[in-house]
Amino acid sequence: MRNFIHIITICFLLTLFYPGNVFAADSEREELYQRRMVLYKKIESVTFIPWYYLAAIDQYERNIRSVRKDLPKPTGLTGIYIPAEKWCGLLNPDQEDTNPLSIKIFGGIGQDGNGDGKAERTNDEDVLYTMANYLLNFGTDEDHIKIGLWEYYKRDKTVGIIVSFAKMYHTWQTLNLEEHHFPLPIRANFSYRDTWGDARGWGGRRIHEGTDIFADYGVNVYSTCYGVIEMKGWNKYGGWRLGIRDINNTYHYFAHLNGFAKDLKLGDMVKPGQLIGSVGSSGYGPPGTAGKFPPHLHYGMYKDNGKTEWSFDPFPHLKRWERETKNKK
């Protein structure tokens, strides 16, 4: 009887802290990752474009479509959106054309990827196959794929982001790179509140684009995500600072550091909870300036939409990651 009551109590607690829909959501997400991976590898097998580049393009497009109002939201298995004029051909009188032959005649790039005789913009396999064949025109190695990406997107930053995504997928061999970690040790003495958008005066009138986490000098600072180090060095505002781009195209900004973890360099990949530096008070002046304010970590988050980048409030994310990191212990 005691064991039965114990089991019931555990189940009750699980429903409080891990609701059933969370378990269901995790299961559905994993199934979605598996289905995507099957499709990426299928297209790789016929085009020789590495699956991790196909996954990277797909993820990039899914990200920008989720934050852009001028693009339709993704509804299928994949997130790649190819405009009708590019798919069917700019001069094609039928902008809903699905005939591979007439699409080719009018200079469109749309192709039939699943062998049903139609080139459909709404078909995941057709879209991914079309993108892979577009890149195939340039080659299958990284340098030539980068050329193909630039020809398609005409934006250096987009090419860099997609290459970073591909590097992450290739290294960790999984599509699930959503884990996060609080940036400071949970047992450390720290404090923070929501100050995003507050006024700042040094160097000219501006707003505070982050959350300040106050802690002692030298307290470890950890990566909050899987990502690639995109920026490392000195900034007159942020002092010794470091930027990490994650798989959701969010740029994580760590500033006022006392220093960096040993051997950490641009282009390195990091994972949640990996040591990247320590808390300091650097900044507000030329390289080496420190001590103009109490030691703290300035933590910012920025989103890129394929055209521009803007900051958003990291406070609710930090609170959630703090809870999640505590639950890992």
Automatic annotation (TrEMBL):
**Enzyme Commission numbers on file:** 3.4.-.-
The chain positions of domain M23ase beta-sheet core read 207-305
Keyword field contains Flavoprotein: no
Q: Which InterPro entries has this protein been placed in?
A: Cell_wall_metabolism_enzyme, Dup_hybrid_motif, M23ase_b-sheet_dom
At the top level, the lineage of the source is Bacteria
Give the GO molecular function terms: metalloendopeptidase activity
Q: Which residues form the signal peptide?
A: 1-24
The EC class name is hydrolase
Keyword line: Hydrolase, Signal
Q: What is this protein called?
A: L-Ala-D-Glu endopeptidase
Write down the species: Caldibacillus thermoamylovorans
